[in-house]
Amino acid sequence: MKPSSILVNPSRGTIVDSDALAEALREGWIWGAGVDVVEGEPQVGADHPLVKESRCIVLPHIGSATTDTRVGIARLAAFNVIGGVLGEEMPSELTLKEDA
């Protein structure tokens, strides 16, 4: 990555090595980082290597907490309930498989 790069991780904490990212920030290998998740969450204290970095923004795993996202989730849930009650297809039906 270029020194002007900003790493963004909205997925899973284990995708990014926190110690390596903190080192990259300290050494100036990248400019900054924004993470919605970190290794070890939800038990993340002030001593976490990314929390200490001034050029890293750490969110408390709330990346999906937007009005549009929450409205979409509510609509999808409602359509699933309606489909299930009417015996019709549910937009995001989950099919569980029994262990073999």
Automatic annotation (TrEMBL):
Name the UniProt record assigns to this protein: D-isomer specific 2-hydroxyacid dehydrogenase NAD-binding domain-containing protein
GO molecular-function term, one example from the UniProt record: glyoxylate reductase (NADPH) activity
Pfam families, alphabetized: 2-Hacid_dh_C
PROSITE patterns: D_2_HYDROXYACID_DH_3
Membrane-spanning segments: none
UniProt KW Oxidoreductase keyword: yes
Domain D-isomer specific 2-hydroxyacid dehydrogenase NAD-binding: 1-63
InterPro entries: D-isomer_2-hydroxyacid_DH, D-isomer_DH_CS, D-isomer_DH_NAD-bd, NAD(P)-bd_dom_sf
Gene3D superfamilies hit by this protein: NAD(P)-binding Rossmann-like Domain (3.40.50.720)
A cellular-component GO term for this protein: cytosol
Organism, as annotated: Phellinidium pouzarii
Keyword annotations: Oxidoreductase
